[in-house]
């Protein structure tokens, strides 16, 4: 879907309703995360199209830290546009039924691991944390816009083998304690959260 296309109303409204439900029912661990949660909900209340890249200047995205808890490692992708090691993730698409599905789809596509499972609470995948950051997803010559990222934890089977996709410059497993230098605080916080939740 291009930046100017509008998703089908039925699919969009279902995904929008799920995002509101998921964020309304999630209880973050600290006040900063709680403020982000409220900001995301305010965004969704104002924008029925708020989950798609066509929604500017901000839109909801979904991502997942792919971890192998048995080995104490996380899979990161070297993003070609950003030049940093990041978790798997990206934009929601019209076929995504909910935020968790969007995060899992991105994680499977970018990791090459088909049997990932999102970390759940009470039988339902739940966000691990939220992160708001500026990007240029509309193109290098376009103004920056804001990603309101909803971040999950994806569990890989012990010893899982990753397969690099065309969306990545590199794809590697890293020990929790040996993350690469080219990672930002958001990735490090997400990995720490994954470690805490799966340890």
Describe this structure as you would to a colleague.
The protein has 199 residues and is α+β, with helices and mostly antiparallel strands. The chain has a single domain, classed as Nucleoside Triphosphate Pyrophosphohydrolase. The protein has four helices and ten strands; from the N terminus they run ααββββαββββββα. It has helices at 9-25, 31-46, 99-111, 185-198, and strands spanning 58-68, 73-78, 85-86, 88-91, 117-118, 120-121, 124-125, 129-135, 145-155, 170-175. Strands 1, 2, 3, 4, 5, 8, 9 and 10 form an eight-stranded mixed β-sheet that branches. It has a two-stranded antiparallel ribbon with strand order 6-7. A hairpin with a 4-residue loop joins β1 and β2 (73-78). The radius of gyration is 16 Å and the shape is globular. Mean pLDDT is 90; it is low at 1-11.
Please give the structural blueprint.
Elements: H1 9-25, H2 31-46, E1 58-68, E2 73-78, E3 85-86, E4 88-91, H3 99-111, E5 117-118, E6 120-121, E7 124-125, E8 129-135, E9 145-155, E10 170-175, H4 185-198
Parallel strand pairs: 1-9
Antiparallel strand pairs: 1-2, 1-4, 2-3, 2-10, 5-9, 6-7, 8-9
